[in-house]
Amino acid sequence: MANLSWLFELRGEVKGKSNYILLLLGLFGILLVWLLLTMGENPLVPSGILPKPTKVVSAYGDLLHDNELVRNITTSYALNLGGYIKALLWSLPLGFLVGLFPLFRGSFQHVVNALRYLPLTAVTSLFIVWFGIYTEMKMNFLAFGIFLYLLPTIIQRIDEVEDVYLTTVYTLGASKWQTFRSVYFPAVMSKLSDDIRVLTAISWTYIIVIENIGSEGGLGFLLHGPSARQGRVDKMFALLILIMVIGVVQDRFFKYLDRKIFPHKYQLKENLEDNKQQNLASDTMDFIGNVFGYVFLAIYALLMINEYTGIVDNFQPLHYFFGDRLWVINLVFFLSLSGVMYRLLKRK
To answer: 44, 37 in Cβ contact below 8 A?
Structure first.
């Protein structure tokens, strides 16, 4: 028992393999309680409230066969990425203007602070009046929701830039533009990447709300539409679990990108972890990730060329899966390709 005392330390850390073992134990515990509550012909919790785990698993087959689950996932994910892209395009220039220049800070700081208290669902009707009920409205609504959180966060991150860095560049005779480029922008973006990860959960909440408007598909449409009308609680649970899994995967992907774009944030931490033998494993994962990334980019390039040239007739999977939101995926593709080209040129 003495060796397990660390499990009950206040704010103790979970390290190494223990993290995965405890994760499996937690998931197993949840599943066991779920089974106990729903087992038998007269379960403790009626099936109309909490379906059996086996029924939820089988519901995925129905969703795939009857409700085009994969297509609805890609539709929602394209909406999610589009909302992030638009929100960043809005919030970054405005955030730096308000955060850096007294003229804009004095004029708009209080307005920015007040925006945080705006209940987003209250402006849904306005967005419908402005943009209709289809993709444009949904993407702008999602972007606005993310924007409300990002804008004051950017201003806060600007205020958190340490004076020692500013003093150093001023001593070296840096201009305002050089100070912004070498200190403010990298420092803010380094921390903002963590804030964007936190917004993953919020973005999916807004997606589920807004996809209930208009019959364009998406996970929110499936959750509020066919599943609710049919009284398929098992489908609802299956979709909710799927949304959580997608959110976790997206969060891990954002963290992977954060490691690649801002490696300095992790160098000190990794050096302090008793010099674990993780370099080989890390290099191996990077190699596998790069191979899959290059293969994916090559396949996507071929599919995109076919979409606009029609080399293979009646074969347009990208339009099928993403519809009028395909521009978002194309933009992400070109950004990824630009990043790859930049890395290759930098090595040379």
So the answer is: yes
Kindly give, in sequence order, each residue whose CB lies less than 8 Å from that of residue 108, ignoring residues fewer than 6 positions away.
Answer: 98
Listed by start position, the domains of the chain span 68-267, 294-348
Average pLDDT, the chain: 83
pLDDT by residue (tens digit) across 26-67? Answer: 889 999 998 898 888 888 888 888 888 889 999 999 888 888
CA gap 151, 94 in Å, rounded: 7
- Whole-model pTM: value is 0.82
Give yes or no for a contact between 108 and 227, defined as CB atoms under 8 angstroms apart. Answer: no
Q: How many CB atoms lie within 10 A of CB 55?
A: 16
CATH of domain 68-267: 1.10.3720.10
C-alpha to C-alpha distance for 45 and 53, rounded to whole angstroms: 13
Place of tokens 């409300």: 148
Angle, helices 53-66/69-100, rounded to nearest 10 degrees: 90
Asked if 95 and 151 touch (Cβ cutoff 8 Å), the reply is: yes
Q: How many CB atoms lie within 10 A of CB 322?
A: 20
Cα distances (Å, whole numbers) of residue 81 to 54, 151, 196, 198, 333: 32, 18, 12, 15, 12
DSSP string, 82-134: HHHHHHHHHHHHHHHHHHH-HHHHHHHHHHHHHHTT--GGGGHHHHHHHH-SS
Residue 40, phi-psi category: left (phi > 0), alpha (psi -120 to 50), beta (remainder): left
Report residue 93's pLDDT band, with 50, 70 and 90 as the boundaries. very high
The answer to whether residues 84 and 207 touch, using CB atoms and an 8 Å cutoff, is: no
156 burial via Cβ count (<10 Å: 0-12, 13-18, 19+):
middle
Cβ–Cβ under 8 Å, residues 108 and 196: no
